[in-house]
Design a protein that fits this description.
138 residues; alpha+beta; 4-stranded antiparallel beta sheet
């Protein structure tokens, strides 16, 4: 019973951390950094997913493994969890083409993010100072 409770709590913690949206809202003053903003957001989300997946997989693997093989189970679970978490995290931010009803502009990118189960699309443009900021187009 104790093993089942620790497994359930590990899964609950991992699921709640992964479910946190990357950005709460696209506000005009928010900076998205320098460089290719979409790829940077995608990489950041994938890195977070890798860490969370590895931790969750290690906990799950050590609990599921038989007696005397807890370490091997944790290592195997961490590896599988890291790969799965990376792919899940990476898929949360999509670099997409402009929708048909919008024309593309120089120094701008269209981003699609998963925000609490709903996809949200908006444009970010690079200013003269090199910072990426939302343009207001949705």
């Amino acid at each position: 019973m104790k093993r089942l409770m620790s497994l359930a709590s590990a899964v609950a913690v991992a699921a709640s951390v992964i479910a946190v949206p990357q950005f709460a809202s696209a506000q005009a003053y928010q900076s998205y950094g320098r460089g290719d903003v979409c790829r940077a957001n995608q990489k950041s989300s994938a890195n977070k997913g890798t860490i969370i997946g590895a931790l969750g997989g290690a906990l799950l693997g050590s609990q599921v493994a038989g007696n005397g093989a807890k370490t091997e189970g944790a290592v195997l679970g961490a590896g599988l969890g890291a790969v799965a978490g990376h792919q899940i995290g990476k898929s949360r931010v999509k670099c997409v083409d402009y929708p048909r009803n919008y024309s593309s502009r120089d120094n701008c990118r269209w981003i699609q993010e998963d925000n609490r189960g709903r996809e949200r699309s908006f444009e970010v443009c690079q200013n003269r100072d090199g910072e990426w900021r939302p343009s207001g187009r949705r």
